[in-house]
Amino acid sequence: MMAKRCKFKISFSLLIASALAFVVYTIITLPRSKPEVEDQPVLNISNESITPVKNTKHLMVGAYMEHRFRGRYVRIISIFRRDSVLPLYCVFSCGTHSASGLQAEVQMHSDHFGFAFVTADILCPIPADCSPVYVTLSTQADLNLIWNPTFISIQNLVNKNEEELQFNFTVCVSNLFGDYNNVLQFTQTLEMYKLLGVQRVVVYNTSSGPDLEKLLQSYRQEGFVEVVPWPINNHMNPSRGWLFSEHGGDIHYYGQLTTLNDCVYRHMYQSRYVLLNDIDEIIAPYQHQTLAQMMEVLQSQHKKADVFLIENHIFPKTQFEPSGRFNRTRWRTVPGINIMEHIYREEPDYKIYHPYKMIVQPRGVEQTSVHSVLRNFGQTVKVPPEVCHIVHVRVPLRKGLTKEELHEDKRVWNYEKELVSNVDGALERAGLLMREASQK
Fold first, then answer.
1. Is this entry keyworded Glycosyltransferase (predicted)?
2. What is the pLDDT of residue 122?
3. Which phi and psi (to 5°) does residue 284 adopt?
């Protein structure tokens, strides 16, 4: 009996051991579930167009993958305080982990016009084990010393070729400020650009008047205008002028140089060409019906060019076309200048500095100023004014000229039929003009 009980105990022990071994084997070989999302660190992502760099006086605006250099870099368009530059480090969010420790290369732009703040490019080398999605700047290289950093999204992740671009022509408008409410001229300019073949207009908006806000909202819904909020006045005292010694303030024209550079990079892989000009300026072809027709010819003549300089020509708003042909009753209640009434053009004084605006291939531009690029990869061409020049209706530049000393220039009238009708339609859709049928 004792032998039988002993054998039973041994068999039972073996059974228990086998069962335990099976359970352990099952646990080991079962596929493991992925950690919950809650286990991943939650990133602080900025959705603002201007983001402060912690513990500095600097600001980040936009981050863009740089596909044109050897090596892997992200370029951060920034605003830097010139007298407060210190070593900065790039911090990347790589999807599954963060990477840091690489020192940033700060490239302050040469144009600052004496102001304390300047546009700057920050080049961030990307670590080998990182596919970056977000980036920020820090005064610390050690990730353990960086507390709750604020990241911005990296744009232009895909290097598109020309056939994949969404637009042929995009206009980048220098920022609006001072409750800008020049509605009629704004509408006429946008509708002229439509007729010239522009597919997108980008506006950096600090402040605009109530009527222009309605118009912007209407164009945004249509998809023609992209509005980028630009609250630069929340971060510094922006200047209303271009020269610090005359106008004071912290930065040139509400950060105009920064917005132009950001706009170039923002649309580098969206648009074949980008026009850099003010909202009261129309880059108008004079030997072609559209900008596309003109640029096809110019590009064939200058195959290595990526910057085309366009002369600025002033049309004084103080001189009116005498017949009153376009002094339309319907437009009199709309605030702003009627450019169709101003057909007299100043001849530029070539003895003094004469400014240009630009049509650029954005992929060929590294840094830009207002009237010229600072760095580009190709050639720069001055377009003859008989081929293209700017229609710029504003206060006269050469104030002593009489009407007889000005040149009659009715280029805008060549688009009269469609332009007038399209302006009416745009104003009606924005609720700024009653429909014709309801007029007495």
1. yes
2. 98
3. -115, 125
